[in-house]
Design goal:
478 residues, 11% strand, alpha/beta, nine-stranded mixed β-sheet
Length: 478
């Protein structure tokens, strides 16, 4: 009897085990499959990491001072006397006849700029202009970070205020945003909208630029800057925010979106870095001039991109000589610029000529005063002069290009946050939407701007403000 029972009992036990093991195995395999599928679609991010850019070794003990300290720009008689003495002792080399700006900054026009700087420019008045917005400094990763933080004076009941971080580039500064800030913090008062989108604006100075302390260690790049600006926004109490930038600011804010996509509600840029290498890009370039519709180019893309060699190779080579110096031996050229205000002005203001409009190359005055006032231009130069920051700002190129010569290293990490692109017609290079989509996977708005160049916020603040508002409104409706 018990001999018959044993096989039955064994069979029952096995069936009981199978009843448990088969579903468990199926669940395990299914779980692995789900994990594999999810990992395939998992958004890659740039590792945030950490850093120390202060002088000497990072302290082993003690927490970093996280206080936010009010800051005020000041000047002195001694500072002005030194500047005037140097301006008066400047030496000039006569320009070639008919050279205009083809050889760089025309020295005949430079004399006029320097005469205005010495005799009419009022730096003390401009310091008051700079101080009209609240300035602050805070210590992050061992260095003092300067920023302005402007809140709207009035917010209708129930209306959300959107925090917006705006980042400048080279050779600009936080001052580039002074004309656009009121359009964003008080849009209804400037006829931009009914006040449905209102911002509080934070404009930091990149470390090594202006009133932000320069890094004391090698290796400070856009990734380190992105991390520091995330820490800044977190320190200000923001968990989610919009970011905007052009030039280096575009690269930095893009890295911010790649690093912490959960913190960036939206990314808006007016310059796009993309890799044009590879077979796909080559085919797009070759066919684009003849059958643009086949490769996703519009008529406006064709107008701005072709002839390709002229607009993307020759023009770029002509305008990028400075880059090769700054990406290799920035301190050498920087010594002269840091010692001579005239040399500094020529070096910086030449960029505000041809980067604003390529045709300004043919003008004896570089077309500078057709878009900006001398007070505006010299105020930006003075920010570099009084802070002795031209060398440290130039080093930013070496730190980035030495690690990533093509600035495409992080193109492998897609940008999945909602993205807005403002394509200005006089930008140094044009990036069609179809090319931008290779990196930016969630483009919400792409606007062909009717006019304007590289320094969009400085030159066309209203156009840029309108595009930012339009973009944010669309993101908020998603």
């Amino acid at each position: 009897m018990w001999q018959e029972f044993l096989p039955n009992a064994w069979s029952f036990e096995c069936s009981q085990k199978n009843a448990v093991l088969v579903p468990a195995a199926a669940l395990g395999v299914g779980g692995m499959l789900v994990f594999w599928m999810r990992s395939r679609h998992k958004i890659k991010t740039i590792e945030m990491g950490d850093g120390w850019w202060g002088s000497g070794e990072r302290p082993l003990k003690g927490k970093e001072d996280e206080s936010i300290r009010p800051f005020k720009i000041e000047t002195s008689d001694k500072e002005m006397e030194d500047l005037h003495r140097r301006l008066e002792q400047a030496r000039y080399t006569p320009p070639l006849e008919g050279a205009a700006f083809h050889y760089g900054f025309n020295s005949n026009y430079l004399r006029k700029v320097v005469a205005y700087w010495r005799n009419q420019f009022d730096w003390r008045k401009q310091v008051e202009v700079l101080n009209k917005y609240p300035h602050f400094r805070t210590t992050i990763e061992g260095i003092d970070i300067h920023f302005i933080h402007v809140k709207p004076s009035y917010v209708p009941h129930g209306r959300a205020v959107q925090p917006l971080l705006m980042v400048h580039g080279w050779p600009g500064s936080f001052y580039e945003f002074y004309k656009i800030i009121p359009l964003l913090t008080e849009p209804a008062g400037h006829g931009l909208n009914e006040g449905d989108v209102v911002f509080e604006v934070i404009c930091p100075s990149i470390p090594g630029y202006g009133f932000s302390e320069a890094p004391h260690q090698k290796g400070f790049d856009t990734i380190a800057t992105a991390r520091i600006f995330h820490k800044l926004m977190n320190r200000l109490g923001f968990k989610q925010y919009y970011v905007q930038g052009g030039d280096w600011g575009s690269r930095i804010t893009t890295n911010m979106a790649q690093m912490l996509p959960q913190s960036v509600k939206g990314l808006h840029v007016n310059l796009v870095f993309v890799n044009k290498r590879g077979l796909r890009s080559m085919i797009s370039v070759m066919l684009g001039a003849y059958v643009p519709w086949l490769v996703g180019l519009t008529r406006e893309d064709v107008r701005r991109t072709y002839p390709f060699m002229q607009k993307n190779i020759y023009d770029l080579l002509r305008e990028s000589g400075y880059l090769h110096i700054q990406a290799t031996k920035p301190d050498t050229a920087g010594c002269g610029l840091n010692d001579s205000p005239v040399g500094l002005a020529a070096y910086i203001l030449e960029k505000f000529s041809t980067w604003t409009d390529k045709s300004f190359l043919h003008k004896d005055d570089g077309g500078l005063e057709s878009k900006y006032s001398l007070d505006e231009l010299l105020t930006n130069v003075m920010i570099y002069w009084v802070t002795s920051s031209i060398v440290s700002s130039m080093r930013f190129y070496k730190e980035n290009f030495s690690k990533d010569p093509n600035l495409t290293l992080h193109a492998r990490v897609g940008v999945y946050v909602p993205t807005g692109i403002a394509a200005f017609p006089q930008e140094i290079v044009h990036t069609p939407r179809v090319w931008a989509k290779q990196n930016f996977k969630n483009i919400i708005t792409y606007t062909y701007m009717p006019r304007g160049g590289h320094f969009a916020a400085f030159e066309e603040p209203k156009l840029l403000a309108q595009d930012i508002i339009h973009f944010v409104r669309k993101v908020e409706q998603l």
